[in-house]
Predict the 3D structure of the following.
Amino acid sequence: MKRAFKWIGGTILVLFLAFLTLFIVGFGPANFGRLAFGIGQTYDDVPPVLPRVSGETAVLIFSKTNGYRDDAQIKAANQALEEIARKRGWSSFTTENGAVFQPALLKRFKVMVWNSVSGDVLTPAQRDAFRKWIEAGGGFVALHGSGGDPSYAWDWYVNDLIGAQFIGHTMGPQFQKATLHIEDRDHPATRHLGASWTRTDEWYSFKSSPRAKGYHILASIDEGSYRPEMKMFPFPGSSDVRMGKDHPMIWTHCVGKGRAFYSALGHTPESYAEPDHLRMIDGAISWAAGLEGPPCADERSAQPTAR
């Protein structure tokens, strides 16, 4: 009898460890973190004290997370963003305090960058201030995880601002070399690139392409150049996250009088030392701030069709 209990106990332990491995190791820390929404949500009600903003272009760098967080990536990206602003002669302010999203403070910024923001990070009043700010002419740049939540508490953000619902990313393996097709080589964010761009990253997939909404696609990924699947170790098989021929990774669109840019690139800290990636972000901020590039309406009318 004791041996039977030991066998049952051992079996339960093995199954538990296998389950734990599935979520932490095999399913990936990225997705494990993404399961944590609704746990430990925090909101800010005391705004930060802003330094004196000088010059016409001030950049708000925001990296609050109430979901998955990669500290190394966020730190590397924040440093890169601050350096881009410094070289351009722009003022910048980096914060994770959501209370900065109030009209009197937002009006001091021409453009904001969301650096892998995750989870529900703004109160209803803060959401309203943000939406009114961009619709009145603010510029918005969102990087990687800012469009990588499996679900959202704010429909306008995912459906209208980002424009696509994340459904998964590569996990077989997580980081793979793949080729991007540059669809617009005249845009400030992509004009330094050739017809194709091959690099290593974690590659996102979305429920549907934002192209159907009229969003302007700058770059799409060639699914034949990598394996768009999520392996579920220790179980056999994998989950297919293919989108087909139309698999955008970088796009722009109008939001009222404002401009919005999203790039799914940049999961690793090393991404923010890549010259081409940094030039893309530089051009994205410049475009979103309205400093260069065609007016947003002109971009929409020039939208290419899917290959």
Observations:
- The chain has one domain: 2-301.
- The domain at 2-301 is CATH 3.40.50.880 (Rossmann fold).
